[in-house]
Amino acid sequence: MNISKYISDKISEVQAGSFTSSVTKIAIISIATGIAIMIVSFAILEGFRNEIRSKIFSFGAHLQISKYDTNNSFEGAPISSATGVNSTEAIPGIAHIQSFARKTAIIKTDDEVLGVVLKGVDENYDLGTMSQNLDAGELISFPDSSSSKEVMVSRSIADKLKLDVGDEAIFYFIQNPPRARKLKVSGIYSTGLDEFDEVFVIGDLQLIRDLNNWPDTIVGGVEIVLKDFEQIDQVAEQVFDQMNYDLQLEKITDRHAQLFDWLQLLRKNVIIFLILIIFVATFNMVSTVFIMIIERINMIGVLKAVGATDAQIRTVFYFRGLNLTLKGMLWGNLIGIGFCAIQYYFELIPLDPENYYMDTVPISWNIGVIVVLNVITLLLTMLAILIPAAMIARIKPVKAIKFD
Q1: Residues ≥6 apart with Cβ < 8 Å to 250
Q2: Are the C-beta atoms of residues 324 and 9 closer than 8 Å to each other?
Q3: What is the mean pLDDT of each run of 10 residues along the chain (404 residues)?
Q4: What is the rounded CA–CA span in Å between residue 368 and residue 44?
């Protein structure tokens, strides 16, 4: 039998109604609250970051290859689809390669006129992320024999031009001589990011080829989707070494640097906030163990008088602190994961899309992060308990037994 654990269990049984009982409840609540807040904070932060990154990726892959020139217009110079990086097998980190082109246009309806940029894509373009942004309608279709006459417009553009799914509008393309095409709205998307929603219309790459008299081998640029976004710097170096000399490579983190810097800043702020929460939880546990030791001074003196070692007595309070910590962690996990599950499935907490770029609080599940948070909390709390437990060695049996 483990004597230290036995005594620890007996302490917890007889202390109901005592001052220590109230303090231990506060310690459990403190740890439970800290764990719950950390789980919810990380789930919301990662959900927010994933949602924003997904919206950004829907308008551009991780890497973009284009013609090297000093022209900063939306259209850019055309390039050959043979960029030197034309196979996903060439570099292990590449998941998908897709072509695109852009062309400025003016949309005219019966009552309104608006300038936009038509981004042309083909059937090989990954529109999976864009489908998550659809408010109404469906993705554009690609016929076999000719260019598609369908486009997807943003909710912002649709509201300004009073367009709905199925409506047609005339697109005037700015070139010499100007050309016009009547195109049909197949879907309406919304990302909440004004730099996309106020500018871009998604259409067929072949339509832009026809307008510019390009052969099938010419595109406006090539986008590269990676298997792991976190490896963007390493893959970018490999792509740069293999692509043709007259092309330039741009990372999405550079193209939208402000958004990614903002997301990185949010993560740093949350980490600082969580460190403070852990500090408060461990400080409360130190205070609780101090109080338990002071309240049990007589018991400590008796145990020392009958031959118990300092290590055995420290273990008694160590087991008690561990028991309180595990109870707090259990309740904290139940509350934190329960809250995240309710929000994930029922979306009870709304957001203002104009300020937060989404209409509900996002939740991202990451079991690894939850496990790490629990392990860190447990380790730091157990280490903190050693601080008050160290005072046991300074307690003298004679004085302790007389302590009142």
Answers
A1: 63, 64, 66
A2: no
A3: 69 61 82 92 91 89 86 80 78 91 92 93 89 91 89 95 94 90 95 90 95 92 93 94 89 91 85 84 82 79 80 84 90 96 94 83 92 91 83 71 59
A4: 15
